[in-house]
Design goal:
The complex is a heterotetramer.
Chain A (H helix, E strand, L loop, with lengths): L1 E4 L9 E7 L6 E2 L4 E6 L4 E5 L4 E6 L5 E4 L3 E6 L8 H5 L20 H4 L13 H6 L3 H10 L17 H6 L12 H10 L17 H23 L1 H11 L5 H4 L1 H22 L2 E9 L1 H11 L10 H15 L5 E4 L2 E4 L5 E3 L1 E2 L5 E2 L2 E2 L7 H16 L3 E2 L8 E4 L19 E5 L3 E7 L2 E15 L5 H15 L6
Parallel strand pairs in A: 5-16, 12-17, 17-18
Antiparallel strand pairs in A: 1-8, 2-4, 2-7, 3-6, 4-5, 6-8, 9-20, 10-11, 12-15, 13-14, 18-20, 19-20
Chain B lengths: L19 H26 L14 H8 L7 E4 L4 H7 L3 H8 L23 E4 L6 H15 L5 E6 L6 H13 L3 E7 L2 E2 L2 E2 H4 L5 H6 L4 E6 L3 H16 L5 E6 L17 H8 L3 H11 L5 H24 L22
Parallel strand pairs in B: 1-2, 1-3, 3-4, 4-8, 7-8
Antiparallel strand pairs in B: 5-6
Chain D lengths: L18 E2 H15 L3 E5 L15 H9 E3 L4 H13 L3 E8 H4 L3 H8 L2 H4 L9 E6 L14 H4 L6 E3 L4 H6 L1 H6 L4 E6 L6 E2 L14 E4 L4 E5 L4 H13 L4 E5 L2 E3 L3 H11 L2 E8 L4 H13 L8 E5 L8 H7 L3 H12 L21
Parallel strand pairs in D: 2-3, 2-4, 4-5, 5-7, 6-7, 10-11, 10-13, 13-14
Antiparallel strand pairs in D: 1-8, 6-12, 9-11
Classes of the chains: A alpha+beta, B alpha/beta, C mainly alpha, D alpha/beta.
Chain lengths: ~475, ~350, ~90, ~350
């Protein structure tokens, strides 16, 4: 048996509110299933479970705020998903906690009733103190493992954070997938997200054959996705099912906005405090892009059409391939290049606030695929249905404030990234070409970059690349 | 199948030159070993030499006397207490000292150290640091000569401790059985490291026991270089004559610790002092002085000459380059097969 | 298939917008306001709107038609006009 | 490439045109002694008795007692004597009855044969060949049945060979004698009666390389010596279940041919190492570690090992059989590796990689 714990969904997350259980005791779960909705300072996020088995007791009732790493539910393991949880709770081995409610009494609202321990109040924010209470070795280890020390409560003398605390802290990085080394290599080569691959090996391990199957199905799935988009009514029904009327987002809308505001404030302050930004801008003739889009979209049903944002995003990602110095992280007083080009898409939420879901390996995606990802992510971000893995790992962020009509946006870099690309509105402007003045659609693309990592010349090279790429949209 | 030959008992004293020059040469040879090792003690204490180092001091008459019976064609297989054997054999002091310094000019290129001195050109097949380990090897050298009909002697030194090893008994039997041209020289210094002979052998007359294998076996006063030379010559002559292996028990004594320093808890100081009265080097020098074959002045000149030679060896060893670490994996397999893992 | 009435078309437009912006407050959107700006619809939202309108009415909407969908009044008019064209001829 | 059916026939007397492993080894020695006067054979009962396993039968008559030298039961002495003789130019072949007895000569093999070249700073080469029988399967119990070749493969300065085929028995000796360094040849006792047609000399792959005895695509079964026939039999069974096993014969246990092993695993992504030695600290462990070091990102399953049970090899037939790697345990390991642990079932067949299935 293992515990499903409050995940860390970002480097700056130290606690979260369990908003909703999507499973109950006795439900079989597979690794990767979405089992709960967790509200962070930024968003309500669907969190997946990383074990296969049967849900045992739910340890935390909805609405409870708990620190990262707190066990939320038990996952019982067995080859076959076991019967109802009540059977399991009778096992002596699971009686570690004070007795819960009579198993037989559970009926409606069993999720809430099944919770053994009373909701724990959120601990006093002790981040700074905890941080101060960690030795250099522990700090180093935390950095290596990407563990946020402020999210830990120390178990050492005087609340000191020990090495073990860091080692036992859940890593905010992408969840560990049980996969063979060969499957990992293959997934990387084929551009397959391992977390999405169903493993058929021992203990659900993903093997080479699974990755190949997934790769073969990728095209099929992309098609299916388009299908789903073409049937919004059906999709809506599903989402209504999944989102009960008392959805967390609506439950405390004010507070959620407040907490997200706080998180954004913290992140942006840190950025402006730590990162010496420099800014560059250039205006690009988008005639070729527009023409190409019009041609592509003609005759396609709306669901299959591309918006200019998809094209711009692709150009931004490809340019990052040409200028890798802008794609990655500033860490430990040095630039760490990203191994992939994962583009964070700044998505503004209607109720206020900002989310940055990530399109992984955006440079490798065809515009159509990228468009499908974009639609899906933006839609789910706004419904508070992003998965944890979809909000992490960005190596470069693109903002598209132009959607709101502004012509240029000088953005604030999301640390630890080193650059942010902004696209303004596509507008018609007088434009001289070949000595002739005409009216062209143009877009202003801006770059905010970290001067510690690069100098202006690198940034200029990047914008030039974006321009050049957009002149040949058919090659994107 | 080797033919059965009648045992040959050589006449004592045959062909041994007894002139003064020869005796002075023996003294010089023994003194060189003694002074060389005394310098080793100094260098070891100064940490210039490391590892195990077993000194021969007190036993010099054996190496020097036996060597008189051997020609350049003969082979020597030795033990880890082999500075004396190597020097007597003619291995240059420079090469030995450099080896102990772990230098590239060492006689084993720094791979062996004090316990593993080799000089293939002089047919000196090494210091073997496994007690008794050199005996089968020596039998093999002798077997090769036997099979190819070369009239050469292989001389194998070993201690009384090796007499307890199966390898001695296996080799003695094999060599006697096959009539191998092997000269077995047991340096009985009365201690297998710290265990006295009577505490590790039921029958302490080693020559008597060796004779049980059908070998010609004698016990010899190992503190008297002339007696050693005489016995060795007679034995070697027998070996060359095809009489099979010969066994010499050299009764000797080491004056210093088993390896550099020990507390001598296993033997009395009085016993050591008693044996020192029979110091093979000083005793022999005294005899030559008394016989007027050596003068005080000549002795001083000899000492100066030896000291200068040792100085040169130390100086050369100091100056010699270290073997580069890049060569670490060399000499594990033959260079022609250098591409092996 | 019958052509849409003005009321039906207006209702379809509002429902489609509400689907995309669940808490859209139409009291703040006049019939001639550019609803894209008022309700802050980005290009993806707008595409979803087009999708929804097309789905609900069966009317084909091309990119060239997008400028017709700027205000609630425009959109209503567009849908009514297209539905009339469509009836009598083969549906799009 | 299609896998040929290479199940090794049951031990039988040499048929017409066929040679047994024993005869091949004898022929190799005869050829070597005819070609080079420096070569001689020494060991217990190699002469009049004709060799404990009959390998040297008849050689005494041809070469005489000087070159076919019966030694007393003194492993240390005659192995050491072989080393000494090799030091001065001879080319001795020393036969030790079994690997268990070789422990009595371990001092000579490790402390002298493997070490002299190095200790002497390159002055002394030791061109000796030491042959010995290894392995179990003949109900000889715990002091005649062990497979300790892995211990020797641990020792730098030695070359360790394990001829598993009649051709290797015939052709490995000459290059071993030509090698300036000590070479140990391990002859699995169960192989002496195996017979096969000898290929012509050319095409012999030397003593450096491992050889793919049967190509396959789904899993590499890596083995040597007496386990090779079992591995080939297992490959037959696996083929019937639709699993294509590649069988790799190490041939040289030291040095290991990492390239051939790696190439195979890079193709099949799965490895089963079959080693009659005990599992703990085994040669199989070494191979598994090397594959993991060098081919981690090729591996699609943990490396499986099929070794002897950790028990002194027992006498009773059933117990002995249970202690040793067998075709069925190899099959089971291969199935685990390809993720198809159950005996072939129609409903799981689709989950297997399709590449290696016969069409």
């Amino acid at each position: 048996m293992s515990a499903f714990t409050m995940p860390s969904l970002g480097a700056d997350m130290d606690e979260g509110v369990l908003r909703e259980w999507l499973v109950g005791p006795g439900d079989p779960v597979r690794r990767g299933d979405v089992v709960a909705i967790v509200e962070t300072d930024k968003a309500a996020i669907e969190v997946e479970c990383f074990e296969s088995g049967t849900v045992g007791r739910l340890l935390v009732p909805p609405g409870t705020r708990v620190p990262v790493g707190t066990p939320l539910a038990e996952i019982e393991h067995g080859r076959e998903p076991a019967g109802p949880a009540r059977k399991d709770t009778l096992k002596p081995g699971t009686r570690a906690r004070p007795a819960g409610p009579e198993p037989g009494k559970e009926s409606a609202g069993r999720a809430a009733n099944a919770v053994d321990s009373p909701a724990r109040p959120a601990p006093e924010p002790s981040g700074e103190a905890a941080c101060a209470g960690a030795g250099p070795l522990v700090r180093h280890l935390a950095q290596l493992r990407g563990v946020d020390l402020t999210a830990l409560s120390g178990t050492g003398p005087g609340g000191r954070i020990t090495r073990a605390d860091v080692e036992h802290a859940p890593s905010p990085r992408a969840p560990r997938v049980r996969a063979t080394p060969y499957a990992r290599r293959l997934a990387r080569d084929l551009g397959i997200d391992l977390t999405a691959v169903r493993g058929t090996g021992d203990g659900g391990a993903v093997r080479g054959v699974d990755v190949r199957t997934a790769a073969q199905g990728a095209d099929v799935r992309a098609g299916a996705q388009a299908d789903a988009a073409a049937r919004p009514a059906e999709f809506r029904r599903e989402s209504e099912q999944r989102t009960p009327p008392a959805a967390p987002a609506e439950e405390h809308p004010g507070r959620r906005t407040d907490t997200m505001r706080r998180a954004i404030a913290e992140l942006m302050s840190r950025s402006k405090r730590e990162i010496p930004h420099y800014y560059l801008a250039t205006t690009i003739d988008l005639t070729a892009g527009q023409t190409w889009l019009r041609r592509i979209n003609r005759g396609r049903p709306p669901a299959d059409r591309l918006v200019p944002a998809a094209l711009l995003m692709k150009a931004a990602a490809l340019a990052a391939r040409e200028v890798p110095a802008l794609n990655g992280y500033w860490r430990d007083e040095g630039f760490v290049p990203g191994t992939e080009i994962n583009v964070g898409v700044a998505v503004s939420l209607r109720q206020g606030g900002l989310l940055s879901p990530v399109i992984h390996r955006a440079d490798t995606l065809a515009p159509e695929t990228l468009m499908a990802h974009l639609k899906d992510l933006v839609e789910r971000a706004r419904r508070g249905r992003l998965r944890g893995s979809e909000t992490t790992g960005a190596t470069l962020t693109v903002t598209n404030l132009g959607e709101q009509g502004v012509e240029s946006v000088f953005g604030v870099i999301h640390p630890p990234q080193v650059a942010l690309v902004g696209f303004g509105a596509v507008v018609e402007r007088p434009w001289a070409r070949n000595g002739m003045l005409g009216v062209c659609p143009v877009v202003t693309v801006t770059l905010a970059a970290d001067h510690r990592a690069t100098d202006g010349a690198v940034g200029a090279r990047y914008l030039t690349a974006v321009d050049r790429l957009l002149q040949r949209p058919e090659e994107l | 199948m080797s033919s059965t030959r009648t045992a040959h008992t050589p006449r004592p004293g045959s062909r041994v030159r007894r002139d003064a020059a020869h005796r002075l040469a023996l003294l010089e040879s023994m003194l060189r070993v003694r002074r060389f090792e005394e310098r080793c003690v100094e260098l070891y204490s100064a940490a210039r030499i490391r590892g195990f180092m077993h000194l021969y001091i007190g036993e010099e008459a054996v190496a020097v006397g036996v060597n008189e019976a051997l020609t350049g064609d003969d082979a020597v297989v030795s033990t880890y207490r082999e500075h004396g054997h190597a020097l007597a054999r003619g291995v240059p002091a420079e090469a030995i000292m450099a080896e102990m310094f772990g230098k590239v000019t060492g006689c084993s290129r720094g791979r062996g150290g004090s316990m593993h001195l080799f000089d293939a050109g002089r047919r000196f097949y090494g210091g073997n640091a496994i007690v008794g380990g050199g005996l089968p090897l020596a039998a093999g050298l002798a077997l090769a000569d036997h099979m190819t009909g070369r009239n050469r002697v292989t001389c194998c030194f070993f201690g009384d401790g090796a007499f307890a090893e199966g390898e001695f008994h296996e080799t003695a039997n094999l060599a006697a059985l096959w009539r191998l041209p092997l000269l077995l020289v047991c340096e009985n210094n009365l201690y297998a490291m710290g265990t006295a002979l009577e505490r590790h052998q039921a029958q302490t007359d080693l020559a008597l026991r060796a004779a049980g294998y059908g070998m010609v076996s004698w016990a010899v006063d190992g503190m008297d270089v002339l007696a050693v030379e005489d016995a060795a010559r007679r034995a070697a002559e027998g070996v060359r004559a095809g009489a099979g292996p010969h066994f010499l028990e050299m009764r000797t004594y080491r004056f210093r610790a088993h390896s550099m320093y020990d507390a001598d808890r296993y033997r009395d100081k009085a016993e050591i002092e008693h044996w020192k009265e029979r110091d093979p080097v000083e005793g022999f020098a005294r005899r030559l002085l008394e016989a007027k074959e050596l003068t005080g002045k000549a002795r001083d000149a000899l000492e100066d000459r030896l000291a200068a030679g040792i100085d040169r060896a130390v100086e050369a060893a100091e100056q010699a380059p270290e073997e580069p670490v890049e060569t670490l994996l060399e000499y594990v397999t033959s260079p022609v097969e250098a591409n092996r893992s | 298939m019958k052509p849409l009435t003005d009321a039906e078309a207006a209702s379809v437009v509002k429902e489609s917008i509400a689907q995309i912006v669940p808490d859209a407050d139409f009291t703040g959107v006049g019939p001639d306001d550019r609803f894209r700006d008022v309700l802050e619809l980005d290009s993806l939202d707008f595409l979803s709107l087009v999708e929804s309108l097309s789905e609900r009415t069966g009317i084909r909407i091309d990119e060239e038609d997008y400028p017709e969908l700027t205000t609630l009044a425009d959109a209503t008019r567009f849908l009514v006009g297209r539905s009339r064209e469509a009836t009598g001829t083969s549906p799009a | 490439m299609t896998a040929t059916r290479t199940r090794t026939p049951a031990p039988a007397a040499a048929a017409e045109g066929r040679t047994t492993y024993r005869d091949a080894m004898r022929e190799a020695m005869r050829e070597a002694m005819r070609a080079d006067e420096r070569v001689f054979l020494m060991g217990e009962d190699v002469g009049r008795y004709g060799g404990c396993f009959g390998v040297s039968l008849g050689l005494l008559e041809e070469f005489g007692p000087e070159r076919i030298r019966d030694a007393p039961l003194s492993e240390s002495a005659f192995v050491g004597a072989g080393i000494g003789a090799a030091l001065v130019g001879m080319r001795p072949i020393v036969e030790i009855m079994t690997v268990n007895f070789s422990l009595l000569a371990l001092d000579q093999i490790l402390n002298n044969a493997a070490t002299l070249l190095h200790m002497s700073g390159g002055q002394l080469e030791v061109p000796i060949v030491i042959r010995m029988t290894t392995g179990a399967g003949r109900q000889l119990a715990a002091q005649h049945s062990h497979s300790l070749e892995g211990w020797y493969a641990h020792i730098p300065g030695l070359r360790v060979l394990a001829p598993a085929t009649v051709a290797d028995a015939r052709y490995m000796l000459a290059p071993a004698l030509a090698d300036p360094d000590p070479v140990l040849i391990f002859e699995h006792g169960s192989l002496y009666n195996v017979s096969a047609e000898l290929p012509a000399g050319p095409g012999f792959p030397g003593i450096e390389r491992a050889v793919v005895r049967r190509p396959g695509t789904d899993v590499s079964v890596i083995t040597y010596g007496g386990s090779l026939p079992k591995a080939l039999a297992a490959a037959d069974d696996l083929a019937e279940a639709g699993i294509s096993a590649e069988v790799v014969d190490l041939r040289s246990l030291r040095p290991l041919d990492d390239a051939t092993l790696g190439d195979s695993v890079a193709r099949t992504h799965r490895a089963v190492v079959v080693d009659e030695g005990w599992r703990t600290g085994s040669l199989a462990a070494e191979i598994s570690a090397r594959l993991t070091e060098g081919h981690f990102y090729d591996l699609d399953a943990p490396v499986e090992r099929v070794c002897s049970a950790e028990v002194p090899i027992p006498y009773a037939r059933a117990l002995e059989a249970a202690a040793l790697p067998q075709a069925d345990t190899i099959v089971a390991a291969a199935r685990r590796a390809v993720g198809d642990p159950a005996p072939a079932r129609a409903d799981t067949a689709d989950q297997r990689p399709t590449a290696g299935r016969p069409s």
